[in-house]
Amino acid sequence: MEFRQATKEDLQAMCRITEQAKAQLLGMGVDQWQKGYPNRQVWEQDIRVGMAWLAVEEKQVLGVFAFQTTPDVSYREIEGEWLTNTPYASMHRVCVSDDSKGKGVAGAMFRHGFAMAKEQGFASLRIDTHPENKPMQRALGKAGFTRCGQITLRGGEEAGDARIAFEYIL
Fold first, then answer.
1. Where does 34-104 have alpha helices with state H?
2. Each residue of 23-39: pLDDT tens digit?
3. Fewest C-beta atoms under 10 Å: which of 57, 77, 83, 113?
4. Cα dihedral sign, 66-44-32-160
5. Could you tell me the pTM of the whole model?
6. Cis amide prior to 135 (ω within 30 degrees)
7. From CA 106, how far away is CA 96, in angstroms rounded?
């Protein structure tokens, strides 16, 4: 499996995988990503600023995620406590194609995120997920993330929604 930054040519595959993830969440009764986010415009912006990354094998897109190196406004306040107070990177919009689920793609994407964050001098990597998204919570635990508390999303379609926050010390 290889990792590379996404380009405009990847948008169709990225949107397909995102729609698969939305459908899975809906099928589990989880309202995460059911308000129009993330969408094509979000991925286009991520591509423009160099935040969109892909897990690829034999030219097939297996998964997609955003890698952010600026502070996340939603992470300023937490009910709980972050593990660090130092600059951090974060991952968002982590999705794996239906055909690639159960094959270790999410774990590989997290490990790649750890490597990128460490290479860029960050002390930790942060991420969040819906309180009812148990599959993602299990994947985060398996990858070594520590549950730190609850945050409230700021801005966008999901503003005001609660999320469980995690951090991984590099």
1. 40-49
2. 999 999 999 999 989 99
3. 77
4. positive
5. 0.96
6. no
7. 7
